[in-house]
Design a protein that fits this description.
The structure is a homodimer of 671-residue chains.
Chain A lengths: L8 H20 L5 H17 L14 E4 L5 H10 L7 H5 L29 H20 L11 E6 H5 L1 H13 L4 E7 L2 E2 L2 E2 L8 H7 L3 E5 L6 H13 L5 E6 L22 H10 L11 H7 L1 H23 L1 H12 L20 E2 H15 L3 E5 L3 H4 L8 E2 L8 E3 L4 H12 L6 E7 L7 H9 L5 E5 L17 H6 L5 E3 L4 H16 L4 E4 L4 E2 L7 H5 L3 E4 L7 E5 L4 H13 L4 E5 L3 H5 L3 H7 L7 E4 L8 H4 L4 E3 L10 H7 L4 H12 L1
Parallel strand pairs in A: 1-2, 2-3, 3-7, 6-7, 9-11, 9-12, 10-11, 12-13, 13-15, 14-15, 18-19, 18-20, 20-21
Antiparallel strand pairs in A: 4-5, 8-16, 17-19
Helix pairs in contact in A: 1-2, 1-3, 1-11, 2-3, 2-9, 5-7, 5-16, 7-16, 12-13, 14-19, 16-17, 21-26
Chain lengths: 671, 671
């Protein structure tokens, strides 16, 4: 009974996706077949009928971006990448789903698999990343396009699920996307009314469509997303026709569609169907093909994407050639930016300071750096989560990024730290050389930690600008005063945390951050609210090494004081007094654990010689993590309790961040 | 021109609130006058006309709860507490706003100021706490009330602002509150269309009312919240009449109302008005009173709250006496629970295990503990953020907490980790002895970190149940595998993190967690996904000490292996091999840094003698923080990079969590 041959070509393609997902999960004995089975039609239609991409050049600049926000359904994406001819996913890769060193990990990872734009899995991140991708497109289009020549012109498509829509981050991102009117953002909501706990009736009965309307989105509904292919196509067509609002298409589907006993149950969400049920599903859908076998007709049809893709890219290359001929200056700027190269001598704008210069908060120095860098780095774009004038992140003269004003570079994220994080990640991962920055108070990294972690994991070159970096914050009190925050961020792999001590070190921090952004590495900068004196001995080069000597004695020190940020000057002042008292003291500025760890052993030994065991760290934050540097015989001036509400200077003094206390602890160590 | 005397009594009261806020901020030269100035009318009406509370017994059980979610407007709350006669806030306290050791810190802190229910400031937390307070009320009412006797019966009122409504957490909380139909939750949205960056036009143009309708809320609008007192009162009255839905009243106000030049600007949000403007404001509102002077009529009117409060409480005590007479068993249970005392021998239900017992994941042991504890601790209530059957947190036989089924104790939070956190905090801070627990994968503490921190800061006795606690998670890959997560949580002050190694230690973890909950201290438990053998030497008592010896040698050890959780058995197995090879090795199980730090120096020395410097920690997580225990001469078996997608056993082996690698590192240390 060769039923399969009676299926339409489209059905063959869609069922190929379904069975690749089912078979891969079955072989891995792990994974999430349910979403790919239900969302296969919308995935097929997107990749086959709408999306412009070139499988043989996944990085082609003007491609439509696709984000699987419901990242657990990764097999949907891998199946589509394989079927449309990406070299990154072969049938063997699919057979190797979720195995060691495979290119088909459990959730889509942009750094593992070409064709995957962003790393998803933690729910809600993908839709917010997609907003960032759409922001990047809108900004570049507004910046570079000419009335007669559209250099930048692509859509951003997302598939998100019930889980994504329950997460607050998706609400934040959808609200700001609606505000911005990002018309080329099209989200398909896989409304399968099942999450891990069962029917969404147990916890999610809101009217999602109405909510998106409230955000200012254009909202559509496809009632039968399982088989009504024409309706899905029509909805996407309609979505494209509305250019001043993002569109959310609610596509009602059945999770695990095709499985006779498990469809529409939580059982098919995150586990293999089991051999018997797979057999029944094959019978149910009349599927005569072996595991991992794709009908030749389906494969050859979907592989037409390769030819289409080549032609899309050729067409764009021709547009680009015209652009280059007509607008050589803009083309050169565009090319330089896209290449990821920094302009020559960009860093010459970064100021340095001497002790004679006015004491200022490092957040003020950060503002200076951003404003010096903005003219030489047009790729710098960002803003704050509603703390612009506290974080001091406005780049003056570059306008506000708003609906219809997409060329502008100051982004108002609103009080939406988490979405800000994921949007910045999306802007960075657009792959167009943009360097996004996102700002809030250091303590509120807690609101956006998942996005910061993803910037580190997914190699998004974002600059996180965090101000009010200690209890020196003052009157706002313990809810606003970071204690453990620096430690908790330093612990994140691949994230460089820098806490500069003065103006020169702030410049050093930006020097590192910009360079790292170009190497697809995020940097988190922690700046003070309060004034700090400038030191003569600080240097940009010192910052690049993470820790360096800023005051020293002759010969081997008896004691090393290690300071960061606002506490470095306590160390240098204390050292002066100790030196005057005949002690041999070294002061090390340690703006970054991470950068110091990257130095060779000889350098580390030169800064913190093993023989010197009397070491005192001074940092207005938790002692957690400091024992690696102060050792078992050292000590810390730190705070391991929550702060208190009072003027910053009072709080600092009361909690022991004073020259007197540093001296007392130093003298105790010296014995 | 004694204009003030021409003001109505209500105006006098409202302007008293406004000027207390203005004068306090002016004196402190720090704070947020804008919100109190605009929200004074709604605050006044709530406290004067609707709320039932007893200023002389702020902890009176059946009081209406009030949450200022827009916590920066703390002076609104302090003014109301002072005016209505709470002893916790005197006029001197108000003069001492935001000063060291004052009872009027920058943001409302429940642990500093009686009458403040929860700690707010980080935006959006308060509205989610309020959902938790309403959950607690609904649950206790359903549990204890009788048709003829309402023992538990109060409202939860919240004032939230634009900032709260931009935060994702508030959307999550509002969605689930709508789902639950919490009719006694009434939120007043101070719609002043100004946030720190200026007009909400720059980032927040969604239709908030429509969004709340989409969540299933009853929504009202007061168009003139500045002066239309009757409309505010009517709206609250209407809100109370709708009993099957929470109500959101959008109250349109002017931030900084009364200030001639700064009203309706961001300038009045978070800074003192300045002497000149305060003077102009006094003229503008015809206010002839000195700073901090409250007109006698206003004070005496508002102080009627004291008499009212006494009578409310007396009335309730009488109800309670009847209840006690009619339903002595229920009254005894209620009394025991409210008192915060645990029932005798509650901990006898916690099982212990021997090496002969079956290897199981510690998450399975957690399930056993929860299900053993549920019958003896009726105050235990909680659930998971849509991972019930992965976290194994269902307490069987206790039903699902749902609309109209509020007596049930299994809460489905949906995929809303952040709201779950804040809701659990609210349940704990209801002060009725409830012990809430909230569960997700350990990695997703990143989504709810701000709420976990607030549990620690605000002394909310919550149990955080976190499973899939390492790269042993396996196939889901690096997005789902904690690396730095344990370190980042251990760094939070006042949060006890416990990572048990087997069944007995899981019981120990719950033993600590339940006891700490009663001491208003949160505990975070980290459980394995994968099977772990049971060890004979583990003990509940050992867990209570944070670290203890589970295998030892004669005399002074040459080497100490320190293991936690799933890696402890690697240590014991390696130690056996080393011992067989003639080495003197000790194994320390260290389920909790925090509990160990709380021990005295002698105990610490007995477990980790200073003389033994060859120490090796083994934990499938970041090395960050471990150097305090392994010292400069020790080493770690740890992972300081992101994980990978593959079966858990493979991932563990590949990243060095094997007996072989422990032996290799141990032998390197032994030299």
């Amino acid at each position: 009974m060769p039923v399969a041959t009676t299926q339409s070509l489209e059905e063959l393609c869609i069922n190929s996706i379904r069975f690749l997902a089912v078979d891969a999960v079955e072989k891995a004995k792990s994974g999430h077949p349910g979403l790919p089975m239900g969302a296969a039609p919308m995935g097929f239609i997107l990749f086959d009928q709408f999306m412009r991409f070139n499988p043989k050049n996944p990085q082609w600049f003007n491609r439509d971006r696709f984000v699987l926000s419901a990242g657990h359904g990764s097999m949907l994406q891998y199946a589509l990448l394989y079927l449309t001819g990406y070299d990154s996913v072969s049938i063997d890769d699919i057979k190797n789903f979720r195995q060691w060193k495979s290119r088909t990990p459990g959730h889509p990872e942009n750094f593992e698999t070409a064709g995957v734009e962003v790393t998803t899995g933690p729910l809600g991140q993908g839709i917010a990343n997609a907003v960032g991708l759409a922001v990047a497109e809108a900004h570049l289009a507004a910046t570079y396009n000419k009335p007669d020549c559209k250099l930048v012109d692509h859509y951003t498509y997302v598939i998100l699920g019930d889980g994504c829509n329950m997460e607050g981050i998706s609400g934040e991102a959808a609200s700001i996307a609606g505000h911005w009117g990002l018309g080329k953002l099209i989200a398909l909501y896989d409304d399968n009314h099942i999450s891990i706990d069962g029917s969404t009736d147990v916890a999610f009965t809101e009217d999602v469509s109405k909510r998106f309307e409230a955000y200012g989105w254009h909202v559509l509904h496809v009632e039968n997303g399982n088989t009504d292919i024409a309706a899905i196509a029509k909805a996407i067509e309609t979505a494209k026709s509305v250019t001043d609002k993002p569109t959310m298409i609610k596509v009602t589907t059945t999770i695990g569609y095709g499985s006779p006993n498990k469809a529409n149950t939580a059982g098919v969400h995150g586990a293999a169907l089991g051999g018997d049920e797979v057999k029944l599903m094959r019978e149910n859908l009349g599927w005569e093909f072996a595991p991992f076998e794709v009908p030749a007709d389906a494969l050859s049809h979907m592989r037409k994407a390769v030819e289409r893709g080549a032609s899309y890219e050729a067409e764009w290359q021709s547009t680009y050639a015209q652009y280059k001929a007509k607008y050589p200056a803009e083309a050169a700027a565009f090319e330089r930016q896209i290449s990821g190269q920094l302009p020559p001598n960009w860093d010459s704008v970064l100021p340095t300071y001497t002790a004679a210069d006015k004491a200022l908060p490092t957040r003020k120095h950060s503002e200076t750096c951003l404003n010096k860098l903005a003219p030489v780095l047009p790729e710098l774009i960002g803003g704050s989560a509603d703390l612009t004038h506290s974080n001091l992140t406005e780049i003056k003269g570059y306008g506000d990024f708003q609906k219809g004003q997409y060329q502008n570079r100051n982004i108002h994220f609103g009080v939406r730290e988490h979405a800000m994080g994921a949007i910045c990640n999306g802007i960075a991962l657009h792959g167009s050389g943009l360097i996004p920055y996102g700002a809030t108070f250091l303590i509120f990294t807690d609101y956006m930690r998942a996005a910061i972690r993803l910037s580190a994991l997914s190699e998004a070159g974002v600059i996180w600008v965090m101000t009010h970096d200690s209890i020196g914050q003052g009157e706002d009190g313990p809810t606003h005063q970071p204690i453990e925050t620096l430690a908790s961020l330093r612990a994140i792999p691949n994230l460089t945390v820098i806490r500069p001590a003065d103006g020169t070190e702030a410049s050093g921090a930006y020097y590192v951050a910009i360079n790292q952004a170009k190497e697809h590495k995020p940097t988190l900068l922690a700046f003070s609210r309060q004034n700090l004196p400038n030191l003569d001995a600080t240097s940009i080069e010192g910052v690049t090494k993470g820790a360096y000597v800023v005051a020293d004695c002759d010969g081997t020190p008896e004691l090393i004081l290690i300071g960061t940020g606002s506490e470095l000057n306590l160390c240098t002042t204390a050292a002066e007094k100790l030196t005057a008292a005949g002690k041999k003291v070294r002061v090390v500025s340690m703006p970054s654990f991470d950068l110091f760890e990257a130095q060779d052993a000889a350098y580390k030994e030169s800064v913190l010689p093993k023989a010197v065991t009397k070491r005192l760290s001074v940092e207005a934050g938790s002692s957690f993590g400091w024992h690696k540097y102060v050792g078992t015989e050292g000590d810390t001036v730190s705070i391991d309790r929550f702060g208190a509400s009072a003027p910053g200077g009072v709080v600092m003094e009361k909690f022991g961040f004073s020259v007197e206390n540093v001296l007392a602890k130093a003298e105790a160590l010296l014995g």
